[in-house]
Amino acid sequence: MKDRIFSGIILIIFFLAIIVFNRSFPLALNIAIALISALAVYEVIKALGLSKRWYITAPSLATAVLVQFCEFQDANLYIYAAFTACVFGALLANHREISFKEIAVVYSMVVIIPLGLQTIVLVRGLHAEHGMFYALICVFAAWIPDAGAFFVGKLFGKHKLCPEISPKKTVEGLIGGVVSSIVILELWGWIFAEVFYGGTREIHLLTLFVIGLFGSLVSVLGDLSFSLIKRSCHIKDFGNVIPGHGGVLDRFDSVIFTAPFVYLVLRLLPMVS
User: Fold this and answer.
1) CB-based contacts of 66: which residues, under 8 Å, 6+ apart?
2) Which end of the chain is more exposed for a tag (fewer CB within 10 A), N or C?
3) pLDDT single digits (tens) 139-183
4) Is the confidence at residue 1, as pLDDT, over 90?
5) How far lies 269's CA from each of 125, 139, 152, 216, in Å?
6) Contacts of 137 (CB under 8 A, 6+ apart)
């Protein structure tokens, strides 16, 4: 428990530091997300037992990193075109060592993980002044309901949510995660407006409510999806990089789903005015 809380605090401080230094060093966010993306992809490859296949690992990690520095759709197309050529060329050359099913799983993860995380970078570009606030919302929309569900489930959880996939998740925890997400995001919006801008900016609380409500459900979808992948690979965690949480992917699995959702909401609804 102590390791989990301490690691969570360190991660929040890490992202807050990136926000503070965004103006002087905007590439800090790109570098951080690139590192997270590469580590997450590597953890999947390792879980599949393919980490020693350099002809799969190398192009996968390169793609995971490069995507985070390309904020234009055409660039992504070129990167994934090159990645496709590399992995299927590798499959043809090494078809006795690796199967199409393994390639298909790796390929799908190298699409889902980097592109999901890339929306944290893309959401920053939606507003020149408040972009980093939006980026933080992408992360908070995943982590807050996860923390809320963990503590509420531990205290009051009785009814299992998906026992065959994630035995510790409960219906009570899910409700607690949704409520905590709405309340804390609304509070964070108020703090942002009052503390940082002295009330001169208006935060659209309806937008935060939508993100808090539906984002928490999307977060659970992401968490359960990667839990299913772990069960398929017969592992408990993707790694042990983050004490109390497991691997990088164990901490960012729900972010991969919530970040694109937040990006979509912010394209449709106003946040700051």
Assistant:
1) 79
2) C
3) 999 999 998 998 898 888 888 988 888 888 899 999 999 999 999
4) no
5) 15, 18, 30, 18
6) 123, 185, 188, 208, 211, 262, 271
User: Cβ(10)–Cβ(248) under 8 Å?
Assistant: no
Number of C-beta neighbours around residue 149 at 10 A: 29
Among residues 207, 209, 143, 126, which one has the least CA distance to residue 177?
Answer: 143
Q: What is the pLDDT of residue 233?
A: 78
186 CB contacts (<8 Å, ≥6 apart)? 205, 208, 209, 212
Q: How far apart are CA 78 and CA 86, in angstroms?
A: 12
Contacts 24+ apart (CB under 8 A), 98-103: 98/50, 98/53, 98/56, 102/48, 102/50, 103/56
At 71 the pLDDT is: 73
